[in-house]
Design goal:
By secondary structure, chain A is an all-beta fold. Chain A has no helices and 11 strands. In chain B, strand 7 and strand 8 form a beta hairpin. The chains are: A mainly beta, B mainly beta.
Chain lengths: 107, 115
């Protein structure tokens, strides 16, 4: 199975920060990486699909990028509603696999 | 609009069988695939298996021997059955449309395995 190594596992942030979360794929997954936001007690919400595409209704301060086997989610000018858990997913090959998650916490 | 909703018992005894239902609306199961995904408390997401639009299935090899996914297209329902439950199966269970890497998710159902 493809492993998605996500870092950091947690991050202490301040409002207005630029935040970057990264996932490294254990083998080539092409553009087939999504990023999800998850708030407590809620289901994940797809934020970025195919590595760089913003999902419907997602604010433009969110962006996704790829450099080789490294995939990043960047949140510019962090707002309070962005404090949540974030997960990456590869779906290039079955089984689809998720990263371990990143928890954003306010300082 | 597309909606998925999970239902099932909140508490299951160890060694028993878990049965969950995912009821979908706004999409046809004959042209859409649905996956089950679970999340133990405080942990990450784990894909469990999928029922494809053609009715075929694929399962996570780690739980394949215990898992069965089926559907009733006339009722727009997808079913999960997993036997020999243990405490480590305690988790939130989600169903999600398997398109573009899970674009729509249900709200989830919490399942606790305890005697």
């Amino acid at each position: 199975d493809i492993q998605m190594t996500q870092s950091p596992s947690s991050m202490s942030v301040s409002l207005g920060d630029t935040v970057t979360i990264t996932c490294r794929a254990s083998q080539d997954v092409g553009i087939y990486v999504n990023w999800f936001q998850q708030k407590p007690g809620k289901s994940p919400r797809r934020m970025i699909y195919r590595a760089t595409n913003l999902a419907d209704g997602v604010p433009s301060r969110f962006s996704g990028s790829r450099s080789g086997s490294d995939y990043s989610l960047t949140i510019s000018s962090l707002e309070s509603e962005d404090v949540a858990d974030y997960h990456c997913l590869q779906y290039d090959e079955y089984p689809p696999t998720f990263g371990g998650g990143t928890k954003l916490e306010l300082k | 609009q597309v909606q998925l909703k999970e239902s099932g018992p909140g508490l299951v005894q160890p060694s028993q069988t878990l049965s969950l239902t995912c009821t979908v609306s706004g999409l046809s199961l004959t042209s859409n695939s649905v996956s089950w995904i679970r999340q133990p408390p405080g942990k990450g997401l784990e894909w469990m298996g999928v029922i494809w639009s053609n009715g075929g299935t694929d399962y996570n090899s780690a739980i394949k021997s215990r898992l069965s996914i089926s559907r009733d297209t006339s009722k727009s329902q997808v079913f999960l059955k997993m036997n020999s439950l243990q405490t480590e199966d305690t988790a939130m269970y989600f169903c999600a449309r398997d398109y573009g890497g899970f674009d729509y998710w249900g709200q989830g159902v919490m399942v606790t395995v305890s005697s």
